[in-house]
Sequence to fold (481 residues):
Amino acid sequence: MKEIKNYIGGEFVVGSGQSIPIYEPASGEQFAYLKDGGPVLVGAAVDAASSAFALWSKTSAIERHDFLHAIASGIERRFDEFVAAESKDNGKTLALAKAVDIPRAIANFKYFAAAALQFSSESYNSPSGPINYVLRQPLGVVACISPWNLPLYLLTWKIAPALATGNTVVAKPSEITPYTAYLLSEVVKDAELPPGVLNIIHGSGAAVGGPLSEHKDVKAMSFTGSTRTGKIIAEKVGPQFKKMSLEMGGKNANIIFADCNYEKMLKKTMHSSFSNQGQICLCGSRILIQKEISDRFITDFVEKTKKLKVGHPSDKETKIGAVVSKEHLEKIMSYIEMAKEEGGQILCGGNQFKLDAPYDGGYYVEPTIIVGLDNNSRCNQEEIFGPVVTIQSFETEDQAIALANDTDYGLAFSLWTENTSKAHRVASELEAGIVWINSWMIRDLRTPFGGVKNSGVGREGGMEVMRFFTEEKNVCIDYGD
Ligand code: NAD
Fold:
């Protein structure tokens, strides 16, 4: 059985805590394990990163660019292995890992390699003499904590800009999906990144994430995960007055007006509802449809959803792979039961799905569509994070905006209309960090990424994250008399 080892100070280190089993969601079989580290493991990683900082923070932008490129190339060389590992560990389809997760991890390193070369700062001069210029200096050791739904994609989205700006990193991937992070540490070693610059440690949130959040030598926290965990981390990091970026949960609205491009909307709504089994923070789990087209939409959407094949992630025909864990499967099923109790009607799906042996122990859920729930029902207010969407209808633009915003979350909303004025008007009223008009999940790495309300604090992406990972220092020189 494979042991997922920690990578600290350029060496692979076996953990010493309790063993955590790693399961393949497609079969429910254990295929690996890790040893849950604790404060000692965290301390060793932070020490290694602290020792490496003096050297790494003084490297030129070109050197950092070259190292990041070498890491990207290392993943590219082992592309198929990374794709297979991500699918095995997470339950996502091989096709998705191949088209999205691993290419995006590579793109993260390449993008921030280029960003290292482009990152600059301002100067302000006055005709009478003094000149101010801004230094953007790396912070020191930074912590990056990531979730299980897009394991390598999200981990590298943090690591790459942190390294590009001259910080050293202690990264903690989800203990549920640590496999590709482990492969990444092999790539990093092969790329001869100086020891201690990037440390990847494994373990549970409580045993490893907690001590990492509390560690006095960690200068900033970049976290992606649930709002519940974000709150715990904020309570630890906040009183230390450290920088933090929190990317958290969502309950995104997909607002469909009657004057939309219907065919395009229908196709994209299938994706925004069920991609990665609905386990993307950006999925549109609340569909809001204008009354004029709601009957037509529901008929077509249900028909298409019934045709989605639930199956083994490696099967080319599969559109719905496995959800990540037994616990998560149970959580999703409990929300479907709750929907029934809340008066919801299940139009399709609603059940656990069993594959034939040897995959009969896998964690599969039928794609599920629910109608008849009030917006303040728990199923419309809480993040289910599975292949489950609800549909509600509205009549006017104002009603659509009010319904969409009636949530504690505010991550990424979509809206569909061919009326450009309405599109701009509604987009500006939506309480979200991202609004897609006539599209879903178009990602440009230069744009600010993040949420408002309970979905997050701060922005990742582009130059926003380069600024997050640096401290600005204004230097003023008066060269007058
Ligand atoms: P989670 O909050 O349970 O875990 C995320 C990470 O935090 C894991 O590495 C975990 O070990 C760690 N952690 C857990 N408890 C901790 C603690 N007390 N201290 C420090 N670290 C701790 O989230 P998850 O279940 O892995 O991921 C799903 C969630 O992530 C969903 O809510 C989803 O919306 C969210 N998410 C948000 C975004 C975004 O960009 N906003 C992207 C992807 C996922």
